[in-house]
Amino acid sequence: MLARFRTVVLGAAVVAAVVGPAVPAQASTRIKGTCTGVPVVYAWSPKAPSVAKGTKVIWKAVSCSHTVTSYSSNWSKNVTLQVGQTTSRVFNTKGVYRFRCKFHSTLTSGKCSGMCGRVTVG
Fold this sequence. Notes:
Blueprint: E1 4-10, E2 13-19, E3 28-36, E4 41-45, E5 50-51, E6 55-61, E7 66-70, E8 78-81, E9 86-91, E10 95-108, E11 111-121
Parallel strand pairs: 3-6, 5-11
Antiparallel strand pairs: 1-2, 3-4, 6-9, 7-8, 7-10, 10-11
């Protein structure tokens, strides 16, 4: 790999510095946890995003407190978020990663109903 040089003029002196290759910004996807309406509807938005390997997924409690809790065996997460807080994970392996809010969903025999979602990494 060839190094790149950048020349900087500081007053009367000329300084050459080695500069590495540009690092691309990490891709990210945001998932919002909300509670709106009468009757109240609890939801993830988007509910089931598909992302590329290496994507950082960020969950945010936009309204109401929520948990981000995994319920598939290929990952582990159980975080409680107050309004305005976030949590994240970088997904580096292909697969389907299921999550739910324990406050606003039920899980019976592996089947989630209510505030449930999934991240598909392809």
